[in-house]
Amino acid sequence: MEDTEWTHTTVLLQEAVNALLQDGPGCYVDATFGRGGHSRRILNQLHPQGRLIAFDKDPEAVTAAQAIQDERFSIRHQGFTHIGDLPRQSAAGVLMDLGISSPQIDNPARGFSFRASGPLDMRMDPSKGESVKDWLARADEQEIKEVIKEYGEERFALSIAKAIVARRQERGVPQTTTELAQLVAGAVKTRESGQDPATRTFQAFRIFINRELEELQQALEASLEVLQPGGHLVVISFHSLEDRIVKQFIAKHSKEQFDRRAPFARPQEMAFKSIARVKPSEDEIFKNPRSRSAIMRVAQRLGSSAEVSP
């Protein structure tokens, strides 16, 4: 099937672009291209002399990006940690949309969906790394439990891990997403209203396999280097683990930093100023229920062009 059979509705589209762009030319970064909703809107509003550099590790996203015919735009087949490869203080704004795109969820072949049968994969870039199926074939009960508990915040993590290991010993590791979803459903004693019992486990495995939280932290740190003074960092997250990292990162760099090893030294000045916390409107949530958990945080880079970044 062609990827065009699945569509994606970009969350907080205009709000994010308004927070990102400044008057005049500049170089902007869409660190998570996805299916290009934010990038296309940025290009619609970007100064004629501006530039937009996008990143994505998903080869299908890169293919979608290559259809954009605009000399101001370029796409890199890399994860968003690679924004740190850009020249220091070269970006007037950095946007990170941490949600996975609807085509990734809805296309069973990608292995993210527990509603339709597909290979148990979940890699953002299927050409690299280890699939969920391969990892489950070798991980022990304790490791599986810790991943489900830490990244899925699932209270039945131990029961699920036991069920997966028992199934592996009896008949081998689950081969498809629906097999895993059914196995998880049998191990979850109570269900949250309106949520499939496999939701938290699938979230956990996806985050773990793609190292999403580690890469988020690295990308945020890289934004300190590439943002110009006055530039904006705009991050849209979709679950509490991501939002907590973003919130703590901005808070940490929104106050003076003291070096305890040199108590009389001059403190390092604030790197960011927190600007806004934005949630989708009721109308957006009605039109796109997947947006209901989104939180957008906006911060402005402080300092001068001569400053040495941390």
Distance between the termini: 47 Å
Assign the CATH superfamily of the largest domain: Vaccinia Virus protein VP39
**Number of DSSP strand runs:** 7
Major sheet: size, sense and barrel closure?
7 strands, mixed
Strand content: 5-15%
As residue ranges, the low-confidence spans are: 1-6, 306-310
CATH architectural label of the largest domain = 3-Layer(aba) Sandwich
Count, helices: 12
Describe this entry's structure for a reader.
The protein is of the alpha/beta class. The protein folds into 2 domains: 3-103 and 212-301, Vaccinia Virus protein VP39 (Rossmann fold), CATH 3.40.50.150; 125-209, Putative methyltransferase TM0872, insert domain (DNA polymerase, domain 1), CATH 1.10.150.170. Helix content is 38%, strand content 15%. It has helices at 13-20, 37-45, 59-65, 102-106, 132-138, 141-152, 157-171, 177-187, 199-209, 212-226, 240-252, 282-287, and strands spanning 27-30, 51-55, 73-76, 91-97, 227-237, 272-278, 295-301. The chain has a 7-stranded mixed sheet, with helices on both faces. Strand 1 (27-30), helix 2 (37-45) and strand 2 form a beta-alpha-beta unit. The radius of gyration is 21 Å and the shape is globular.
